[in-house]
Description:
By secondary structure, chain A is an alpha/beta fold. Chain A has 16 helices and eleven strands. By secondary structure, chain B is mostly helical. Chain B has helices spanning 11-20, 27-44, 79-83, and strands at residues 89-90, 93-94. In chain B, a hairpin with a 2-residue loop joins strand 1 and strand 2.
Amino acid sequence: MSNDGGILQLSEQVRSGQATAESVLDSCLERIDCYDPVLGCFQDTFADVARERAREVDRLVNDGKDPGLLAGVPVAVKDTIVSRNEITTCGSRILENFVSPYDATVYTRLLAAGAVPFGKTRCDEFAMGSSTEHCAFGPVRNPWDTSRVPGGSSGGSAAAVAAGFCPAALGSDTGGSIRQPAALCGVVGIKPTYGRVSRYGLVGFGPSLDQVGPFARSVEDAAAILQVIAGEDVHDSTTIDTPVPDLLGELHTPLEKLRVGVPSEYLVEGNDPAVNERVHAAMDVYRSLGAEIVDVQLPLTDVGIATYYVIGPAEASSNLARYDGIRYGRRATLEPGEVLFDLYARSRSEGFGDEVKRRIMLGTYVLSAGYYDAYYKRALQVRRLIRDEFNSVFEQCDVLLGPTTNGPAFALGSKNDPLSMYLCDRYTVNANIAGICGISLPAGTMDVDGHELPIGIQLQAPALCEPTLLRAARMFEAAAGHEDHLPDLEKTVAAS
Amino acid sequence: MAHESEHTISIDEARHVADLARLQMTEEQIESCRGDLESILGHIETINAINVEGIEPLAAAIEMTNRLSPDEVHESLPVEEVLANAPALEDRYIAVPKVLDEDGNN
Protein backbone atom coordinates (compact mmCIF):
# COMPACT_ATOMS: atom_id res chain seq x y z
CA MET A 1 0.00 0.00 0.00
CA SER A 2 1.21 3.48 -0.81
CA ASN A 3 2.14 5.55 2.21
CA ASP A 4 1.65 8.75 0.25
CA GLY A 5 -1.41 10.73 1.03
CA GLY A 6 -4.25 9.94 3.30
CA ILE A 7 -7.54 8.13 3.24
CA LEU A 8 -9.36 10.81 1.27
CA GLN A 9 -6.69 10.72 -1.47
CA LEU A 10 -6.77 6.94 -1.52
CA SER A 11 -10.53 6.94 -1.81
CA GLU A 12 -10.32 9.53 -4.58
CA GLN A 13 -7.87 7.32 -6.48
CA VAL A 14 -10.27 4.41 -6.23
CA ARG A 15 -13.25 6.53 -7.26
CA SER A 16 -11.38 7.96 -10.23
CA GLY A 17 -10.15 4.54 -11.34
CA GLN A 18 -6.45 5.32 -10.76
CA ALA A 19 -6.30 2.43 -8.29
CA THR A 20 -8.59 -0.50 -7.68
CA ALA A 21 -9.93 -1.32 -4.25
CA GLU A 22 -8.81 -4.90 -4.84
CA SER A 23 -5.18 -3.95 -5.46
CA VAL A 24 -5.18 -1.67 -2.41
CA LEU A 25 -6.50 -4.54 -0.27
CA ASP A 26 -4.03 -7.00 -1.75
CA SER A 27 -1.04 -4.87 -0.88
CA CYS A 28 -2.34 -4.59 2.72
CA LEU A 29 -2.77 -8.34 2.96
CA GLU A 30 0.71 -8.95 1.51
CA ARG A 31 2.32 -6.75 4.14
CA ILE A 32 0.30 -8.48 6.85
CA ASP A 33 1.38 -11.90 5.59
CA CYS A 34 4.97 -10.75 5.70
CA TYR A 35 5.13 -9.06 9.13
CA ASP A 36 2.12 -10.01 11.21
CA PRO A 37 3.48 -13.43 12.19
CA VAL A 38 5.92 -11.42 14.36
CA LEU A 39 3.55 -8.68 15.57
CA GLY A 40 0.31 -10.65 16.05
CA CYS A 41 -2.05 -7.74 15.36
CA PHE A 42 -4.69 -9.88 13.69
CA GLN A 43 -6.85 -12.53 15.25
CA ASP A 44 -8.29 -13.27 11.84
CA THR A 45 -8.26 -11.86 8.34
CA PHE A 46 -10.96 -12.85 5.91
CA ALA A 47 -9.26 -12.27 2.58
CA ASP A 48 -11.94 -13.86 0.39
CA VAL A 49 -14.87 -11.94 1.85
CA ALA A 50 -12.83 -8.73 1.87
CA ARG A 51 -11.74 -9.23 -1.74
CA GLU A 52 -15.36 -9.66 -2.76
CA ARG A 53 -16.18 -6.40 -0.93
CA ALA A 54 -13.33 -4.65 -2.73
CA ARG A 55 -14.48 -5.98 -6.10
CA GLU A 56 -17.96 -4.68 -5.39
CA VAL A 57 -16.47 -1.22 -4.79
CA ASP A 58 -14.59 -1.51 -8.08
CA ARG A 59 -17.79 -2.60 -9.85
CA LEU A 60 -19.60 0.47 -8.54
CA VAL A 61 -16.80 2.68 -9.84
CA ASN A 62 -16.94 0.96 -13.24
CA ASP A 63 -20.68 1.52 -13.33
CA GLY A 64 -20.15 5.22 -12.74
CA LYS A 65 -21.49 5.11 -9.19
CA ASP A 66 -19.88 6.64 -6.10
CA PRO A 67 -19.05 3.98 -3.50
CA GLY A 68 -18.76 6.64 -0.77
CA LEU A 69 -16.33 8.68 1.30
CA LEU A 70 -14.17 5.66 2.16
CA ALA A 71 -14.22 3.99 -1.26
CA GLY A 72 -11.79 1.08 -1.20
CA VAL A 73 -10.20 2.00 2.15
CA PRO A 74 -9.18 -1.17 4.03
CA VAL A 75 -10.15 -0.89 7.70
CA ALA A 76 -9.16 -3.29 10.48
CA VAL A 77 -11.73 -3.81 13.21
CA LYS A 78 -11.15 -4.60 16.87
CA ASP A 79 -12.28 -8.08 17.79
CA THR A 80 -14.90 -6.63 20.16
CA ILE A 81 -17.02 -5.40 17.24
CA VAL A 82 -19.29 -8.01 15.71
CA SER A 83 -19.77 -8.70 12.03
CA ARG A 84 -22.06 -11.17 10.38
CA ASN A 85 -20.60 -14.53 9.37
CA GLU A 86 -17.20 -13.62 10.83
CA ILE A 87 -15.88 -14.84 14.16
CA THR A 88 -15.74 -12.25 16.95
CA THR A 89 -13.80 -13.60 19.94
CA CYS A 90 -13.32 -10.51 22.11
CA GLY A 91 -9.96 -12.07 22.90
CA SER A 92 -11.75 -14.68 25.00
CA ARG A 93 -11.96 -18.46 25.00
CA ILE A 94 -15.60 -18.10 25.99
CA LEU A 95 -16.36 -16.62 22.54
CA GLU A 96 -13.75 -18.60 20.65
CA ASN A 97 -16.19 -19.71 17.95
CA PHE A 98 -18.83 -17.03 18.18
CA VAL A 99 -20.31 -15.95 14.84
CA SER A 100 -22.59 -12.95 15.07
CA PRO A 101 -25.91 -13.11 13.23
CA TYR A 102 -25.71 -9.35 12.56
CA ASP A 103 -23.27 -6.53 11.80
CA ALA A 104 -22.45 -3.84 14.34
CA THR A 105 -23.80 -0.47 13.23
CA VAL A 106 -20.27 0.90 12.81
CA TYR A 107 -19.52 -2.05 10.52
CA THR A 108 -22.67 -1.42 8.46
CA ARG A 109 -21.70 2.24 8.14
CA LEU A 110 -18.16 1.43 7.03
CA LEU A 111 -19.52 -0.88 4.35
CA ALA A 112 -22.10 1.67 3.24
CA ALA A 113 -19.31 4.25 2.77
CA GLY A 114 -17.33 1.90 0.50
CA ALA A 115 -14.74 0.89 3.11
CA VAL A 116 -13.35 -2.64 3.06
CA PRO A 117 -13.25 -4.20 6.53
CA PHE A 118 -10.92 -7.15 6.19
CA GLY A 119 -9.82 -8.42 9.58
CA LYS A 120 -10.30 -8.53 13.33
CA THR A 121 -7.54 -7.21 15.56
CA ARG A 122 -6.43 -8.67 18.84
CA CYS A 123 -7.27 -7.02 22.10
CA ASP A 124 -7.19 -7.68 25.82
CA GLU A 125 -9.94 -10.13 26.74
CA PHE A 126 -13.26 -8.24 26.78
CA ALA A 127 -11.19 -5.07 26.35
CA MET A 128 -9.94 -5.35 29.93
CA GLY A 129 -6.33 -4.31 29.97
CA SER A 130 -3.77 -1.73 28.95
CA SER A 131 -1.22 -3.91 27.16
CA THR A 132 -3.03 -6.49 24.97
CA GLU A 133 -1.18 -9.14 26.99
CA HIS A 134 -4.52 -10.37 28.34
CA CYS A 135 -5.65 -11.77 24.99
CA ALA A 136 -6.44 -15.48 25.25
CA PHE A 137 -4.92 -16.07 21.81
CA GLY A 138 -1.57 -14.37 22.32
CA PRO A 139 -0.18 -10.89 22.80
CA VAL A 140 0.41 -8.17 20.22
CA ARG A 141 3.88 -6.68 19.90
CA ASN A 142 4.74 -3.03 19.43
CA PRO A 143 5.96 -2.35 15.87
CA TRP A 144 8.57 0.09 17.20
CA ASP A 145 10.14 -2.52 19.49
CA THR A 146 8.78 -6.05 19.56
CA SER A 147 9.89 -6.61 23.17
CA ARG A 148 7.33 -4.00 24.20
CA VAL A 149 3.55 -3.89 24.37
CA PRO A 150 1.44 -1.85 21.95
CA GLY A 151 -0.76 -0.67 24.81
CA GLY A 152 -4.33 -1.77 25.12
CA SER A 153 -6.88 -2.84 25.08
CA SER A 154 -7.13 -1.98 21.36
CA GLY A 155 -3.46 -2.90 20.87
CA GLY A 156 -3.95 -4.86 17.66
CA SER A 157 -5.74 -1.97 15.96
CA ALA A 158 -3.13 0.58 17.03
CA ALA A 159 -0.21 -1.64 16.04
CA ALA A 160 -1.81 -2.53 12.69
CA VAL A 161 -2.04 1.14 11.73
CA ALA A 162 1.47 1.90 13.03
CA ALA A 163 2.83 -1.08 11.09
CA GLY A 164 1.34 0.30 7.89
CA PHE A 165 -0.89 -2.77 7.51
CA CYS A 166 -3.92 -0.58 6.83
CA PRO A 167 -4.68 3.14 6.81
CA ALA A 168 -7.24 2.96 9.60
CA ALA A 169 -8.75 0.73 12.25
CA LEU A 170 -11.60 0.77 14.72
CA GLY A 171 -11.10 0.33 18.43
CA SER A 172 -13.19 0.76 21.55
CA ASP A 173 -12.34 2.92 24.54
CA THR A 174 -13.77 2.32 28.02
CA GLY A 175 -11.01 3.95 30.06
CA GLY A 176 -8.34 4.78 27.49
CA SER A 177 -8.30 1.71 25.28
CA ILE A 178 -8.02 3.75 22.06
CA ARG A 179 -5.96 6.73 23.22
CA GLN A 180 -3.34 4.84 25.25
CA PRO A 181 -2.36 2.34 22.51
CA ALA A 182 -2.47 5.17 19.94
CA ALA A 183 0.10 7.00 22.07
CA LEU A 184 2.31 3.94 22.56
CA CYS A 185 2.24 3.10 18.84
CA GLY A 186 2.61 6.65 17.53
CA VAL A 187 -0.71 7.00 15.72
CA VAL A 188 -3.84 9.12 16.09
CA GLY A 189 -6.71 7.72 18.18
CA ILE A 190 -10.07 9.32 19.00
CA LYS A 191 -12.44 8.58 21.89
CA PRO A 192 -15.64 10.28 20.76
CA THR A 193 -18.22 11.84 23.08
CA TYR A 194 -20.33 9.19 24.83
CA GLY A 195 -23.31 8.56 22.55
CA ARG A 196 -21.67 10.00 19.44
CA VAL A 197 -21.06 6.55 17.95
CA SER A 198 -23.44 3.61 18.17
CA ARG A 199 -22.50 0.75 20.47
CA TYR A 200 -24.88 -1.67 18.73
CA GLY A 201 -22.73 -4.69 18.02
CA LEU A 202 -19.89 -3.63 20.30
CA VAL A 203 -19.48 -6.42 22.81
CA GLY A 204 -20.12 -4.53 26.02
CA PHE A 205 -17.68 -4.08 28.89
CA GLY A 206 -18.87 -0.97 30.74
CA PRO A 207 -21.94 0.25 28.87
CA SER A 208 -21.95 3.74 30.40
CA LEU A 209 -18.27 4.19 29.52
CA ASP A 210 -17.71 2.35 26.19
CA GLN A 211 -17.30 4.21 22.89
CA VAL A 212 -16.10 3.05 19.48
CA GLY A 213 -13.57 5.25 17.73
CA PRO A 214 -10.94 5.33 14.98
CA PHE A 215 -7.18 4.88 14.74
CA ALA A 216 -5.38 6.45 11.79
CA ARG A 217 -2.12 8.05 10.75
CA SER A 218 -3.42 11.59 10.67
CA VAL A 219 -6.14 13.72 12.22
CA GLU A 220 -7.82 14.03 8.84
CA ASP A 221 -7.89 10.28 8.29
CA ALA A 222 -9.30 9.68 11.78
CA ALA A 223 -11.88 12.43 11.23
CA ALA A 224 -12.98 10.82 7.95
CA ILE A 225 -13.60 7.50 9.70
CA LEU A 226 -15.41 9.20 12.60
CA GLN A 227 -17.56 11.13 10.14
CA VAL A 228 -18.76 7.84 8.67
CA ILE A 229 -19.36 5.85 11.88
CA ALA A 230 -20.89 8.63 14.02
CA GLY A 231 -24.55 9.47 14.41
CA GLU A 232 -27.83 8.44 15.94
CA ASP A 233 -28.81 4.79 15.67
CA VAL A 234 -32.24 3.29 16.30
CA HIS A 235 -30.49 0.19 17.65
CA ASP A 236 -28.72 2.12 20.43
CA SER A 237 -30.95 4.36 22.51
CA THR A 238 -27.90 6.00 24.11
CA THR A 239 -26.78 7.54 20.82
CA ILE A 240 -27.17 11.30 20.76
CA ASP A 241 -29.93 12.53 18.47
CA THR A 242 -28.22 15.73 17.32
CA PRO A 243 -26.88 15.64 13.76
CA VAL A 244 -23.17 14.88 13.29
CA PRO A 245 -21.40 18.10 12.30
CA ASP A 246 -19.15 18.24 9.24
CA LEU A 247 -15.79 17.22 10.70
CA LEU A 248 -13.77 17.63 7.51
CA GLY A 249 -14.87 20.92 5.92
CA GLU A 250 -13.04 23.25 8.28
CA LEU A 251 -10.56 20.78 9.72
CA HIS A 252 -7.55 22.52 8.22
CA THR A 253 -8.68 26.02 9.19
CA PRO A 254 -6.90 26.99 12.42
CA LEU A 255 -9.12 28.07 15.30
CA GLU A 256 -8.81 31.70 16.25
CA LYS A 257 -8.42 32.72 19.88
CA LEU A 258 -8.08 29.08 20.92
CA ARG A 259 -7.70 28.68 24.67
CA VAL A 260 -5.66 25.61 25.60
CA GLY A 261 -5.98 24.62 29.25
CA VAL A 262 -3.12 22.74 30.86
CA PRO A 263 -4.08 21.23 34.23
CA SER A 264 -1.27 21.39 36.77
CA GLU A 265 -2.23 17.81 37.78
CA TYR A 266 -1.15 16.59 34.32
CA LEU A 267 2.49 17.69 34.52
CA VAL A 268 3.71 15.78 37.54
CA GLU A 269 7.00 14.17 38.49
CA GLY A 270 5.48 10.69 38.09
CA ASN A 271 5.62 11.21 34.32
CA ASP A 272 8.69 10.31 32.33
CA PRO A 273 10.57 13.62 31.90
CA ALA A 274 10.38 13.16 28.12
CA VAL A 275 6.59 13.16 28.38
CA ASN A 276 6.48 16.44 30.27
CA GLU A 277 8.97 17.88 27.82
CA ARG A 278 6.66 16.98 24.89
CA VAL A 279 3.67 18.59 26.57
CA HIS A 280 5.72 21.76 27.11
CA ALA A 281 6.78 21.63 23.47
CA ALA A 282 3.13 21.31 22.46
CA MET A 283 2.31 24.35 24.59
CA ASP A 284 5.00 26.24 22.65
CA VAL A 285 3.50 25.07 19.36
CA TYR A 286 0.08 26.38 20.38
CA ARG A 287 1.53 29.66 21.60
CA SER A 288 3.31 30.10 18.27
CA LEU A 289 -0.06 29.62 16.55
CA GLY A 290 -1.60 32.43 18.57
CA ALA A 291 -3.43 30.26 21.10
CA GLU A 292 -3.61 31.24 24.72
CA ILE A 293 -2.26 28.74 27.27
CA VAL A 294 -4.41 28.75 30.40
CA ASP A 295 -3.29 27.26 33.70
CA VAL A 296 -6.18 25.25 35.10
CA GLN A 297 -6.76 22.82 37.93
CA LEU A 298 -8.41 19.41 37.87
CA PRO A 299 -7.92 18.26 41.47
CA LEU A 300 -10.05 15.15 40.93
CA THR A 301 -7.62 13.76 38.34
CA ASP A 302 -6.15 11.42 40.94
CA VAL A 303 -9.42 9.83 42.02
CA GLY A 304 -10.28 8.90 38.44
CA ILE A 305 -8.72 5.43 38.57
CA ALA A 306 -10.39 4.65 41.90
CA THR A 307 -13.78 5.79 40.59
CA TYR A 308 -13.31 3.92 37.33
CA TYR A 309 -12.35 0.67 39.07
CA VAL A 310 -15.67 0.72 40.88
CA ILE A 311 -17.93 1.75 37.99
CA GLY A 312 -16.22 -0.26 35.22
CA PRO A 313 -16.04 -3.62 37.06
CA ALA A 314 -19.55 -3.10 38.51
CA GLU A 315 -20.95 -2.69 35.02
CA ALA A 316 -18.79 -5.50 33.66
CA SER A 317 -19.84 -7.94 36.35
CA SER A 318 -23.51 -7.55 35.55
CA ASN A 319 -22.89 -7.22 31.82
CA LEU A 320 -20.82 -10.39 31.56
CA ALA A 321 -23.47 -12.38 33.41
CA ARG A 322 -24.78 -13.20 29.93
CA TYR A 323 -21.90 -15.63 29.40
CA ASP A 324 -23.49 -18.63 31.00
CA GLY A 325 -22.83 -21.41 28.50
CA ILE A 326 -26.49 -21.64 27.54
CA ARG A 327 -27.33 -19.60 24.44
CA TYR A 328 -23.89 -19.01 22.95
CA GLY A 329 -20.27 -19.24 23.86
CA ARG A 330 -18.33 -21.98 25.52
CA ARG A 331 -20.29 -24.64 27.43
CA ALA A 332 -18.43 -26.85 29.87
CA THR A 333 -18.98 -30.59 30.06
CA LEU A 334 -20.62 -31.60 33.32
CA GLU A 335 -19.56 -34.46 35.55
CA PRO A 336 -22.23 -36.85 36.76
CA GLY A 337 -24.24 -35.30 39.57
CA GLU A 338 -23.45 -31.73 38.63
CA VAL A 339 -26.38 -29.36 38.12
CA LEU A 340 -27.23 -26.17 36.25
CA PHE A 341 -25.29 -23.97 38.69
CA ASP A 342 -22.17 -26.00 37.92
CA LEU A 343 -22.77 -25.55 34.21
CA TYR A 344 -22.74 -21.76 34.63
CA ALA A 345 -19.79 -21.69 37.00
CA ARG A 346 -17.72 -24.23 35.12
CA SER A 347 -18.35 -22.67 31.68
CA ARG A 348 -17.44 -19.22 32.96
CA SER A 349 -14.39 -20.43 34.84
CA GLU A 350 -13.06 -22.32 31.83
CA GLY A 351 -13.92 -19.52 29.41
CA PHE A 352 -12.76 -16.37 31.21
CA GLY A 353 -9.14 -15.44 31.80
CA ASP A 354 -7.68 -14.19 35.08
CA GLU A 355 -8.11 -10.46 34.47
CA VAL A 356 -11.76 -10.84 33.49
CA LYS A 357 -12.42 -12.97 36.57
CA ARG A 358 -10.66 -10.40 38.75
CA ARG A 359 -12.88 -7.60 37.44
CA ILE A 360 -16.03 -9.68 37.74
CA MET A 361 -15.07 -10.47 41.34
CA LEU A 362 -14.33 -6.81 42.06
CA GLY A 363 -17.58 -5.66 40.44
CA THR A 364 -19.62 -8.29 42.23
CA TYR A 365 -18.00 -7.32 45.52
CA VAL A 366 -18.69 -3.57 45.19
CA LEU A 367 -22.30 -4.26 44.22
CA SER A 368 -22.92 -6.86 46.92
CA ALA A 369 -25.11 -6.32 49.94
CA GLY A 370 -23.49 -4.05 52.49
CA TYR A 371 -20.97 -2.51 50.11
CA TYR A 372 -23.18 -0.93 47.47
CA ASP A 373 -23.40 2.49 49.15
CA ALA A 374 -19.80 2.55 50.30
CA TYR A 375 -18.39 1.81 46.85
CA TYR A 376 -20.80 1.98 43.93
CA LYS A 377 -23.04 4.82 45.06
CA ARG A 378 -20.08 6.83 46.27
CA ALA A 379 -18.26 6.29 42.95
CA LEU A 380 -21.31 7.59 41.06
CA GLN A 381 -21.34 10.65 43.31
CA VAL A 382 -17.66 11.25 42.59
CA ARG A 383 -18.49 10.71 38.91
CA ARG A 384 -20.79 13.74 39.02
CA LEU A 385 -18.08 15.79 40.71
CA ILE A 386 -15.55 14.78 38.03
CA ARG A 387 -17.96 15.74 35.25
CA ASP A 388 -18.81 19.05 36.93
CA GLU A 389 -15.11 19.79 37.40
CA PHE A 390 -14.53 19.33 33.65
CA ASN A 391 -17.56 21.53 32.92
CA SER A 392 -16.24 24.37 35.03
CA VAL A 393 -12.72 24.07 33.60
CA PHE A 394 -14.17 24.22 30.09
CA GLU A 395 -15.51 27.68 30.95
CA GLN A 396 -11.89 28.81 31.07
CA CYS A 397 -10.59 26.98 28.00
CA ASP A 398 -11.74 25.27 24.78
CA VAL A 399 -9.54 22.19 24.98
CA LEU A 400 -7.35 20.55 27.59
CA LEU A 401 -3.79 19.53 26.78
CA GLY A 402 -1.71 16.94 28.60
CA PRO A 403 0.01 13.59 28.27
CA THR A 404 -1.89 10.54 27.07
CA THR A 405 0.27 8.24 29.19
CA ASN A 406 2.99 8.81 31.77
CA GLY A 407 5.66 7.12 29.67
CA PRO A 408 6.43 5.23 26.47
CA ALA A 409 5.56 1.59 25.76
CA PHE A 410 6.64 -0.81 28.50
CA ALA A 411 8.13 -4.28 28.13
CA LEU A 412 5.89 -7.32 27.85
CA GLY A 413 5.48 -8.91 31.27
CA SER A 414 6.77 -5.88 33.17
CA LYS A 415 3.48 -4.96 34.86
CA ASN A 416 2.44 -8.13 36.63
CA ASP A 417 0.68 -6.39 39.48
CA PRO A 418 -2.89 -5.55 38.38
CA LEU A 419 -2.91 -2.19 40.17
CA SER A 420 0.24 -0.96 38.42
CA MET A 421 -1.41 -1.83 35.09
CA TYR A 422 -4.58 0.03 36.11
CA LEU A 423 -2.61 3.16 36.97
CA CYS A 424 -1.48 3.39 33.30
CA ASP A 425 -4.80 5.01 32.56
CA ARG A 426 -4.51 8.01 34.89
CA TYR A 427 -4.88 10.56 32.10
CA THR A 428 -7.53 8.80 30.07
CA VAL A 429 -10.22 7.34 32.38
CA ASN A 430 -11.79 10.63 33.39
CA ALA A 431 -12.92 11.40 29.84
CA ASN A 432 -14.96 8.17 29.93
CA ILE A 433 -16.28 8.93 33.40
CA ALA A 434 -17.38 12.40 32.23
CA GLY A 435 -18.47 11.35 28.71
CA ILE A 436 -16.32 14.00 26.99
CA CYS A 437 -14.25 13.49 23.82
CA GLY A 438 -10.50 13.07 23.59
CA ILE A 439 -7.76 12.43 21.07
CA SER A 440 -4.20 11.15 21.32
CA LEU A 441 -1.70 12.61 18.87
CA PRO A 442 1.86 11.54 18.06
CA ALA A 443 4.30 14.01 19.63
CA GLY A 444 7.56 12.55 18.40
CA THR A 445 9.70 9.76 19.72
CA MET A 446 12.29 9.21 22.43
CA ASP A 447 15.26 6.86 22.40
CA VAL A 448 15.08 3.91 24.79
CA ASP A 449 17.79 1.23 24.59
CA GLY A 450 18.49 2.06 20.97
CA HIS A 451 14.81 1.94 19.96
CA GLU A 452 12.76 4.91 18.95
CA LEU A 453 9.55 4.87 21.02
CA PRO A 454 6.59 7.16 20.39
CA ILE A 455 5.16 9.60 22.89
CA GLY A 456 1.58 10.82 22.68
CA ILE A 457 -0.14 13.94 23.84
CA GLN A 458 -3.84 14.11 24.58
CA LEU A 459 -6.38 16.82 23.86
CA GLN A 460 -9.81 16.70 25.49
CA ALA A 461 -12.86 18.80 24.66
CA PRO A 462 -16.39 19.09 26.06
CA ALA A 463 -19.11 16.64 25.07
CA LEU A 464 -20.14 17.05 21.42
CA CYS A 465 -17.23 19.40 20.68
CA GLU A 466 -15.48 17.05 18.24
CA PRO A 467 -15.14 19.84 15.62
CA THR A 468 -13.11 21.96 18.08
CA LEU A 469 -11.15 18.93 19.30
CA LEU A 470 -10.18 17.88 15.79
CA ARG A 471 -9.33 21.34 14.51
CA ALA A 472 -7.17 22.01 17.55
CA ALA A 473 -5.52 18.61 16.99
CA ARG A 474 -4.89 19.39 13.33
CA MET A 475 -3.29 22.74 14.27
CA PHE A 476 -0.73 20.89 16.40
CA GLU A 477 -0.20 18.14 13.83
CA ALA A 478 0.39 20.61 10.97
CA ALA A 479 2.80 22.75 12.98
CA ALA A 480 4.68 20.16 15.04
CA GLY A 481 6.01 18.03 12.19
CA HIS A 482 5.50 14.60 13.78
CA GLU A 483 2.94 13.64 11.16
CA ASP A 484 3.06 10.18 9.65
CA HIS A 485 6.31 9.11 11.28
CA LEU A 486 6.12 5.31 11.26
CA PRO A 487 8.54 2.61 12.43
CA ASP A 488 10.93 0.90 10.04
CA LEU A 489 9.27 -2.48 10.27
CA GLU A 490 11.99 -4.39 8.50
CA LYS A 491 14.49 -3.15 11.06
CA THR A 492 12.23 -3.81 14.07
CA VAL A 493 11.40 -7.30 12.94
CA ALA A 494 15.01 -8.10 12.16
CA ALA A 495 15.99 -6.97 15.67
CA SER A 496 13.36 -9.11 17.35
CA MET B 1 1.73 2.17 44.68
CA ALA B 2 -0.13 -0.44 46.79
CA HIS B 3 -2.27 1.03 49.53
CA GLU B 4 -3.23 -0.57 52.79
CA SER B 5 -6.89 -1.45 52.69
CA GLU B 6 -8.99 -0.38 55.64
CA HIS B 7 -10.58 -3.77 55.80
CA THR B 8 -9.57 -7.19 54.70
CA ILE B 9 -11.48 -9.77 52.73
CA SER B 10 -11.71 -13.21 54.27
CA ILE B 11 -11.43 -16.42 52.28
CA ASP B 12 -15.10 -17.10 53.04
CA GLU B 13 -16.09 -13.69 51.79
CA ALA B 14 -14.11 -14.17 48.58
CA ARG B 15 -15.69 -17.59 48.13
CA HIS B 16 -19.14 -16.06 48.61
CA VAL B 17 -18.42 -13.40 45.96
CA ALA B 18 -17.19 -16.08 43.56
CA ASP B 19 -20.44 -17.98 44.08
CA LEU B 20 -22.49 -14.84 43.45
CA ALA B 21 -20.49 -14.30 40.26
CA ARG B 22 -20.90 -17.96 39.22
CA LEU B 23 -17.15 -18.51 39.13
CA GLN B 24 -15.57 -21.78 40.13
CA MET B 25 -12.19 -21.24 41.72
CA THR B 26 -9.56 -23.39 43.36
CA GLU B 27 -8.27 -22.54 46.85
CA GLU B 28 -5.13 -21.00 45.33
CA GLN B 29 -7.16 -18.91 42.89
CA ILE B 30 -9.41 -17.65 45.68
CA GLU B 31 -6.39 -16.76 47.79
CA SER B 32 -4.66 -14.92 44.97
CA CYS B 33 -7.85 -13.13 43.94
CA ARG B 34 -8.47 -12.14 47.56
CA GLY B 35 -5.05 -10.50 47.72
CA ASP B 36 -5.60 -8.65 44.44
CA LEU B 37 -8.99 -7.39 45.58
CA GLU B 38 -7.56 -6.10 48.86
CA SER B 39 -4.85 -4.22 47.02
CA ILE B 40 -7.25 -2.73 44.46
CA LEU B 41 -9.84 -1.85 47.11
CA GLY B 42 -7.05 -0.17 49.05
CA HIS B 43 -6.55 2.14 46.11
CA ILE B 44 -10.28 2.53 45.55
CA GLU B 45 -10.68 3.75 49.10
CA THR B 46 -8.93 7.00 48.10
CA ILE B 47 -12.40 8.15 47.03
CA ASN B 48 -13.41 8.10 50.67
CA ALA B 49 -11.48 11.34 51.09
CA ILE B 50 -13.90 13.11 48.74
CA ASN B 51 -16.85 14.88 50.33
CA VAL B 52 -19.92 13.62 48.50
CA GLU B 53 -22.57 14.85 50.90
CA GLY B 54 -25.70 15.90 49.05
CA ILE B 55 -24.27 14.92 45.65
CA GLU B 56 -26.69 13.08 43.41
CA PRO B 57 -25.16 9.89 41.91
CA LEU B 58 -24.51 10.14 38.17
CA ALA B 59 -25.12 6.82 36.41
CA ALA B 60 -24.56 8.06 32.85
CA ALA B 61 -22.37 10.98 31.91
CA ILE B 62 -24.68 12.24 29.19
CA GLU B 63 -28.02 12.44 30.96
CA MET B 64 -30.96 11.37 28.85
CA THR B 65 -34.59 10.70 29.47
CA ASN B 66 -36.20 7.48 28.33
CA ARG B 67 -36.54 7.22 24.60
CA LEU B 68 -39.31 5.23 22.99
CA SER B 69 -38.94 3.35 19.75
CA PRO B 70 -41.73 3.61 17.22
CA ASP B 71 -44.08 0.64 17.49
CA GLU B 72 -43.29 -0.80 14.10
CA VAL B 73 -43.11 -4.35 12.87
CA HIS B 74 -39.73 -5.11 11.38
CA GLU B 75 -37.75 -8.12 10.41
CA SER B 76 -35.93 -9.91 13.21
CA LEU B 77 -32.70 -11.86 13.02
CA PRO B 78 -32.91 -15.23 11.26
CA VAL B 79 -33.63 -17.85 13.93
CA GLU B 80 -31.26 -20.43 12.42
CA GLU B 81 -28.32 -18.01 12.49
CA VAL B 82 -29.02 -16.99 16.07
CA LEU B 83 -29.38 -20.59 17.21
CA ALA B 84 -26.22 -21.59 15.35
CA ASN B 85 -24.21 -20.29 18.32
CA ALA B 86 -26.03 -22.40 20.90
CA PRO B 87 -23.79 -25.14 22.32
CA ALA B 88 -26.59 -27.74 22.33
CA LEU B 89 -29.86 -27.86 20.43
CA GLU B 90 -32.85 -30.12 20.24
CA ASP B 91 -34.82 -29.18 17.16
CA ARG B 92 -35.26 -25.44 17.49
CA TYR B 93 -34.80 -25.42 21.26
CA ILE B 94 -31.67 -24.78 23.30
CA ALA B 95 -30.92 -27.86 25.38
CA VAL B 96 -29.83 -27.47 29.00
CA PRO B 97 -29.21 -29.93 31.83
CA LYS B 98 -32.21 -30.87 33.89
CA VAL B 99 -33.27 -27.83 35.93
CA LEU B 100 -35.76 -29.46 38.33
CA ASP B 101 -35.22 -32.63 40.31
CA GLU B 102 -37.79 -35.39 40.63
CA ASP B 103 -39.63 -33.49 43.37
CA GLY B 104 -39.85 -30.36 41.24
CA ASN B 105 -37.20 -28.41 43.18
CA ASN B 106 -34.33 -26.64 41.51
